[in-house]
Specification:
Layout (H helix, E strand, L loop, with lengths): L9 H18 L8 E5 L5 E6 L2 H4 L6 H13 L9 E6 L3 H9 L4 E6 L24 E3 L4 H17 L1
Parallel strand pairs: 3-4, 4-5
Antiparallel strand pairs: 1-2, 1-3
Length: 162
């Protein structure tokens, strides 16, 4: 089903992004910025998923990607390595999450909207494809970007109105 390097079919990745967007919506229930992440195994099966829980946990590192990568590593069966896995996230990862993706050895990072203010997968930095690192995940941005951006804009608009 998958080519080496974790290149899953577009429909599998798209379905994961839809799932991540649903998780992003739930993050708002507890006051967190709407961001969701799903980790797919090499065969496209969902290993783990998470929403942003920074406010919920009072934890500056509880970004959706970090929570999903941790949970995925717990079930993937290769120790901490997520070899062949794909991280699907609704917003371009920050430096921490881009770094975590590299450290987890994921094959591919797929994200939705660009984050020009903090993105570390090409916007402000490019941590995931830095040639000085010996592991560099493939990167695909812009998957359902408008849906993610709309969700984020509405969230910040509501928050400013409070
Ligand atoms: Zn992050």
């Amino acid at each position: 089903m998958t080519a080496p390097g974790g290149v899953l079919p577009d429909d599998v990745v798209d379905a994961a992004m839809v799932r991540a967007l649903r998780l992003a919506v739930t993050a708002q229930e507890w006051g967190d910025t709407p961001i969701g992440a799903v980790v797919l195994g090499p065969d496209g099966a969902v290993l783990a998923e998470a929403a942003n829980e920074r406010e919920k946990r009072g934890d500056p590192t509880a970004h959706a990607e970090v929570l999903a990568l941790r949970a995925a590593a717990a079930v993937h069966g290769d120790g901490w390595r997520l070899t062949g896995a794909t991280l699907v996230v609704t917003l371009e990862p920050c430096t921490m999450c881009a770094g975590a993706s590299v450290l987890a050895r994921v094959a591919r990072v797929v994200y939705g909207a660009d984050d020009p203010k903090a993105g570390a997968a090409g916007s402000l930095w490019d941590v995931v494809r830095d040639r000085r690192l010996n592991h560099r995940p493939q990167v695909t941005g812009g998957v359902r970007a408008e849906e993610s951006a709309t969700l984020l804009r509405a969230f910040f608009r509501r928050r400013r109105a409070l």
